[in-house]
Amino acid sequence: MALKSLLSIVSLFAALHTTSAALTRRVACDDGVHTATNAACCQLFAVADDLQQNLFDGGQCGEDVHESLRLTFHDAIGISPAIAARGEFGGGGADGSIAIFEDIETNFHANLGVDEIINEQKPFVARHNLSVADFIQFAGALGVSNCPGAPQLDVFIGRQDATQPAPDMTVPEPFDSVDSILARMSDAGGFTNVEVVWLLVSHTIAAADHVDPTIPGTPFDSTPDLFDTQFFIETQLKGTLFPGNGSNQGEVMSPLAGEIRLQSDHDLARDSRTACEWQSFVNNQAKAQNRFKQAFRKMTLLGNDESQLIDCSEVIPVPPPPASDAHFPAGLTIDDVEQACAATPFPTLPTDPGPVTTVAPVYVSSHFDFSVRL
């Protein structure tokens, strides 16, 4: 009896292994190089090669990566169940409307500047068989994979392209109140207060052109080409200067020369509803990766039924490992922190040696933000 039982268990494990192998069986792509779990994903390898070589400068975490990431947000967030409940079109979410109806949506105040990356992406869209909606989200996720320390983001295909533009006023602005931002994000996709913070991890690889047009390409932290947690440290430091021509709408004082700080980032870092979650990222690279991955996935599915889409996340390369550790910029210490989280002390961090940090402009013309004017 014991032998029969043992043989039954062995047979069960063998059957489970066979079933698992069948579920993960890969297909050969027509290019003769790649394989995929779903044949529909094969086309993305050629798209990725084209983008990396001809848009992302051979796989760099540069300007067009930042612009492409910003575009994913500005397209996806254009959805409002509250507007739809009034009997009006509330937008389709991640449906490509921002590019399909470029002549309308890029004139919305919140979207000024996104026309540049839309026009740069147009030739790629034209030569590849993807919906505009899928292309925008794929390009953003692929670009982020070039940034050291970034997570490997999820990608889906099968979205239907928009047939009408998203409504205006659906993209938050950097001068909006915290109340307004949190309400807009809740309406757009049920984003909780902490999930709003998770999305803003993206500001680690971000910069602004038009908040202060006299200093284009001014980053939000001192390491704009690294996906790290410096953004969450430096937004909590005391502001001492304006990096350009003085105070502008949507801007507050920055702690470093050459670094710009958005009013929305400053306020969210100090609001009781979001301050502790903000601070929790200060020296937690793994959490920054994980939470942004979750929030990005949720955002890219806005307006879509995930069960009707194909998961092609395997096409996105594994990003380079982190290339920095959490630290105070040279010349600054814990004494410069404006502690806002009442529940937890600010983490102990080293200070970079050397003279006071000055951040050089990186001439990055866009970012994944609450609508800096670009």
Automatic annotation (TrEMBL):
Listed EC numbers: 1.11.1.-
Pfam families: peroxidase (PF00141), Peroxidase_ext (PF11895)
InterPro entries documented for this protein: Ccp1-like (IPR044831), Haem_peroxidase (IPR002016), Haem_peroxidase_sf (IPR010255), Ligninase (IPR001621), Ligninase_C (IPR024589), Peroxidases_AS (IPR019794)
Taxonomy, superkingdom: Eukaryota
A GO BP annotation: response to reactive oxygen species
Binding residues annotated for Ca(2+) 2, in chain numbering: T204, D221, T223, D228
GO molecular function terms noted in the UniProt entry: heme binding; metal ion binding; peroxidase activity
Residue positions binding heme b: H203
Note accompanying the cofactor annotation: Binds 1 heme b (iron(II)-protoporphyrin IX) group per subunit.
Catalytic residue list: H74 (proton acceptor)
Disulfide bridges in this chain: C29-C42, C41-C312, C61-C147, C276-C341
Cofactor(s) the record lists: heme b; Ca(2+)
Record site feature (Transition state stabilizer), residues: R70
Stretches assigned to the Plant heme peroxidase family profile domain: 69-345
Keyword flag Disulfide bond: yes
Main enzyme class: oxidoreductase
Assigned protein family: Belongs to the peroxidase family. Ligninase subfamily.
PANTHER family: CATALASE-PEROXIDASE, THYLAKOID LUMENAL 29 KDA PROTEIN, CHLOROPLASTIC-RELATED
Protein name (Swiss-Prot/TrEMBL): Peroxidase
Organism: Lentinus tigrinus ALCF2SS1-6
Native organism taxonomy: Eukaryota, Fungi, Dikarya, Basidiomycota, Agaricomycotina
